[in-house]
Design a protein that fits this description.
Elements (H helix, E strand, L loop, with lengths): L3 E2 L7 H32 L5 H25 L12 E4 L3 E5 L5 E5 L5 E5 L2 E5 L5 E5 L6 H12 L5
Antiparallel strand pairs: 1-2, 2-3, 3-4, 5-6, 6-7
Length: 158
């Protein structure tokens, strides 16, 4: 079959921040909901006890600390490569990614261990902390995206 060539794509810092927050909420949103519920409970049953103060403050501040941490992390200088423009060519055997600075990577379908669809993007995990981010808007047409989905479904799994 003919390979699919995606339009060049570039991830921005705000988009990456939103993506990380959405991934974190999918993974442990229940925990943040529990923290906020606990904070509200202790706020309305306030007794002035030091433990109540700690639990209330912690419950409301921890989610904000995590948001701040993600925002700072997305701006780190060693994350600059994430924001480079990327060109992807996809065929039934592998995904080939290139950057204008000369970077090139080939990832066989067998290395894709998990797939998520978030925020108009496909996240193809190749390990617990590494993923390829493909914009749905970068596909040339709906038929190309359908072929991509077929290749995703047919990928060998371990």
């Amino acid at each position: 079959m003919e390979p699919i060539t995606l339009a060049p794509q570039r991830l921005t810092r705000p988009a990456y921040f939103r993506l990380l927050v959405k991934i974190k909420l999918r993974k442990s949103g229940w925990l943040y909901g529990l923290l906020l519920a606990m904070g509200l409970f202790y706020l309305f049953t306030w007794s002035g006890e030091p433990l109540h103060i700690f639990i209330t403050v912690f419950s409301f501040v921890w989610p904000l600390v995590m948001l701040l941490w993600f925002y700072v992390w997305t701006g780190r200088s060693d994350n600059a490569r994430i924001y480079e423009e990327r060109h992807f060519t996809i065929n039934e055997e592998k995904i080939i990614g290139t950057t204008p600075s000369g970077g090139r990577g080939e990832i066989p379908w067998s290395h894709v261990v998990r797939v998520l669809e978030i925020d108009g993007r496909y996240l193809l995990y190749i390990s617990a902390g590494q993923m390829l981010i493909l914009d749905k808007a970068a596909f040339p047409d709906a038929a190309a995206e359908a072929r991509f989905r077929q290749w995703l479904a047919a990928r060998p799994t371990a």
